[in-house]
Amino acid sequence: MRLPNLLATARGRLTAFFFLYMTEGIPLGFAATAVATQLRRQDVGPAEIGAFVASFYLPWAFKWAFGPIVDVFASERFGRRRGWILGTQILMAATLLSTVLLDLPQQLGLFTAILLVHNTFGAMQDVAIDALACSTLSEHERGLANGMMFAGASIGQLVGGSGVLFLMGYTGFQPTFFFVAGCILAVTAFIVLPMREAAGEPRAAIVGPRLRAAGREMHDFAIRSFRSFLGTRGAFSGLVLSLLPPGAMCLGLALQSNLAVELGLNNDEVAKLNAWTAVVGAVSMVAGGYLSDRFGRRLTLFIYIACMGLPVLYLMALLQQYGWIMPISPNAPNRPEVPAALVTALWIASIVYNVFNGLMYGTRSAICMDVTNPRVAATQFTAYMALMNLTISYSAAWQGIAIEAWGYPRTMLVDVLFGVVCLALIPFMARKAGESFTDDAAPVRARAVAGILGLACLAWLPFRMGAETLGAAQPIAGTLFTLVFVGAALFLFAGRAVLGEQAGALTRVGLWIAPLLLAMYARYHLDAIAGWFAFAVTPETFKSAAEWGLRGVPLAGGITLLLLALQPWRELRPQPETA
Q1: What is the DSSP letter of 80?
Q2: Number of neighbouring beta carbons within 10 Å of residue 45
Q3: Residues pairing with 79 in the sheet
Q4: Distance (Å, rounded) from C-alpha 412 to C-alpha 258?
Q5: What proportion of the chain, given as a percentage, has pLDDT over 70?
Q6: By CB neighbour count within 10 A (0-12 exposed, 13-18 middle, 19+ buried), where does 41 fall?
Q7: What 3-state class would DSSP assign to 574?
Q8: Distance between CA atoms of 552 and 569, rounded to whole angstroms?
Q9: pLDDT tens per residue, range 288-315
Q10: Cβ 449 vs Cβ 431: under 8 Å
């Protein structure tokens, strides 16, 4: 029997995109819930688990870079988007299966590296799926489809998280890798293979090598994105909103799994908890989109984000009351007896949290669509989504560090306070009918961003010299500086594309400094790198030389950015509209 082409009907399209997003959620749930739970049972610390979960989300923060590649290297035979979805899903399954024989937690580093590659393919798949949705869905279908897609991702996380935890009781941990890979391949066989993507507009002839064409696409992408992000107050507010946590996030990350294990929940109980929260979250995502259409996105989003902290504060108060402050190894001797009230509080807090988190999820995406320039919708919206994933990554990282340094209650309080900062931006997330997507204030915003990033780079110097005074907060501050260096590097790359030779040697210097700023992440691995050059210099000599670089690169980057803040940035002024 021939399977139907789901893209041919409205109901079929909703079904297809629901299942396609499921394949994105399955590996995320597997890593953040099932693997994180297993690692905690094997006495891996919260900081290591937080770093593992953070690395798993990292490729999604940079998925915007795959857009030009997916556009340029497309197959007319297999479908411009369908071909990429087919290939990436097969590679996702293959990388998962390659980890079956690894020994955890002893080979956690190799396991993390392979899953990082796996999730890179997942991020590429997401770009292709979003592009297929943009070209396939009718305008009146997109609202409901958006809710269905996020609900599919949530159900996928349920399958990869709770489903695997249930299965582990019968098969053990390693065989569940076959289950996760099988779920992905089932969607490939029954959904993707029968799809017939409609032929797109005739493609312009590629002049020169395809790789050079991809380079031109990346250059054009940088210019369009820069103008789109800084063009209006709403678009710029969306950029900052995407970089900030949308409310408290801890009960949606590894903190919940860590706490569930420490409170004595077995795998089946953790699976039930995550199953219920995933179902509640999926239903709420669809409801949130509907309510935002009815009552206005800014009002509803403000309420949802403000309410996300309430269940976190409730659970925090109970943990404080019963003295459950610092993480306790599940294998520690003489563990304190777990109060039943804490287990009940975890259930209540998790379910209520996922109601508001689900309501927020679809609404936040919709409000970003409202301020997105339709001429560059795929570019701008994909970048917003990528930055949101970067927020998840750094939140998981700092929370893992903070739990070990401060304990659960204080970490949860900081999470709540940090999460409401974004509320100040929501009033600006609006665009009047007929308003242009670039205004006269765009150059001012560019200068402001350059100045802020420049000062932040320079702030690294006093931090580096007195980092020890921060005590347990030192790794958290280090994570924030990593974000500054990444943001500064991307700004320098984009600044070169936008300003070109107008700024003279300044943008050329910035182009050299940008990769060095990205390389600042190597500061976490100086001991290992020093070992590579032990045949030539002693580790002490290498570290001493590296320290000069660790101070000189941010200094040079900060000065360059401050000089860019003095440029007029006339190139960002409103451009004539062309048909």
Answers
A1: T
A2: 16
A3: 75
A4: 13
A5: 88
A6: middle
A7: coil
A8: 27
A9: 877 887 788 889 999 999 999 999 999 9
A10: no
Helix (H) or strand (E) holding 156: helix 142-158
In contact, 237 and 429? CB cutoff 8 Å: yes
Q: Please say whether the beta carbons of 358 and 280 come within 8 A.
A: yes
Q: What is the pLDDT of residue 262?
A: 86
Which DSSP helix (H) or strand (E) runs through 510?
helix 505-518
User: What share of residues in the chain are helix, strand, coil (percent, to 5)?
Assistant: 80, 0, 20
Residue 79: strand, helix, or coil: strand
Q: Could you tell me how far CA 289 lies from the centroid of its own chain?
A: 21
Q: Write out pLDDT tens, residues 125-144.
A: 888 887 787 778 775 676 67
Short-list 516, 520, 387, 392, CA closest to 55: 392
Q: Using the predicted structure, report yes or no on whether residue 186 has a pLDDT greater than 90.
A: yes
Residue carrying structure tokens 């556009």: 71
CATH number for the region 6-196+210-428 comes to 1.20.1250.20
Alpha-carbon 396 to chain mean position: 10
Look up residue 162 and give its DSSP letter: I
Cα 573 off chain centre by: 31
Q: Are 364 and 247 in contact (CB under 8 A)?
A: no
Single out the residue of 292, 353, 308, 32 nearest to residue 147, CA to CA: 292
| Token pair listed for 58 | 């990292």
